[in-house]
Amino acid sequence: MTVDVLDEYARLSEAKDKIEAEIAAIAEELTGGANPPGLTGPLVDSEGFPRADIDVYRVRHQRHAFACLQTDHKAVMKQIEQMLPQVFAARTAAAKEPKTEPQPPRAPPAAPAVAMAPAARAASSVRKEIGCHRLLAASSDRLKKPFALVQSVQNGAVLLLLLRCFDALNRACLTMRCCCVQSPAATALLRAGDQVLVFGTADATNHRELEAVKEIVLRNVGSAIRVIVRRRPAIQKERVQGDSNDWEVEELVLTPQRWQGAGVLGCVLLPFQEDMATEAARP
């Protein structure tokens, strides 16, 4: 059972990565270069004729493919979210299994080693924490250059609840209690000072002064968005200057939704500038 759950999780993660790569490729094609057609908008000129500077048929085809991939991505992310309790339960059960005693020195049979390989590969792909974030190697070109900075994250909105109650003389009175509701950004484990490398299909090459981020958020209210950020390790927060290898790159899952605070994210994103990053890194 444990192996089946982890194998299915690995399969869904692979499918998600493939879909995201296709989405990113289409977004780059439609939003890159001089005077791009974009993901939406008219394909005719001011006189109502088809634009002569683009392949209108291909743009329409790519836009349709982009919409279909977005639908597929939402479905896969929903499956992954639903599987997370089973995945973590499987990992917990596997950790509690008693370890077998070491066998006398001899050549191990090949069959068991082959049988264990899928489980090992699947387990290595499981996210390390319930917040669905994992440490990534900053090897991809998309992970080299940040384009946005998380200026602040709202940890929660304090709500005052007026509860009707009665005193000892059965007279009505009011009492106030407070509770805290986490914002979507706080739930996703975003931190102030995080430098955003990837936000859905947006990166440093196509974010259009964060307009692409706004579009992605509006299209995905209630759905998960893959966000990749880089941040300093906790023990190195006091180091303002340092080698790029000091950064930790993490993948988060952010789900925009209505909450008790303002907006659907609960954080403030600003276009990335080096001086802003330095200021955010100071204790």
UniProtKB/TrEMBL annotation:
<dbReference type="InterPro" id="IPR036034">
    <property type="entry name" value="PDZ_sf"/>
</dbReference>
<dbReference type="Pfam" id="PF18265">
    <property type="entry name" value="Nas2_N"/>
</dbReference>
<protein>
    <recommendedName>
        <fullName>Nas2 N-terminal domain-containing protein</fullName>
    </recommendedName>
</protein>
<feature type="region of interest" description="Disordered">
    <location>
        <begin position="92"/>
        <end position="111"/>
    </location>
</feature>
<keyword id="KW-0143">Chaperone</keyword>
<dbReference type="GO" id="GO:0005737">
    <property type="term" value="C:cytoplasm"/>
</dbReference>
<feature type="compositionally biased region" description="Pro residues">
    <location>
        <begin position="101"/>
        <end position="111"/>
    </location>
</feature>
<dbReference type="GO" id="GO:0005634">
    <property type="term" value="C:nucleus"/>
</dbReference>
<dbReference type="InterPro" id="IPR035269">
    <property type="entry name" value="PSMD9"/>
</dbReference>
<dbReference type="GO" id="GO:0070682">
    <property type="term" value="P:proteasome regulatory particle assembly"/>
</dbReference>
<dbReference type="InterPro" id="IPR040815">
    <property type="entry name" value="Nas2_N"/>
</dbReference>
<feature type="domain" description="Nas2 N-terminal">
    <location>
        <begin position="10"/>
        <end position="89"/>
    </location>
</feature>
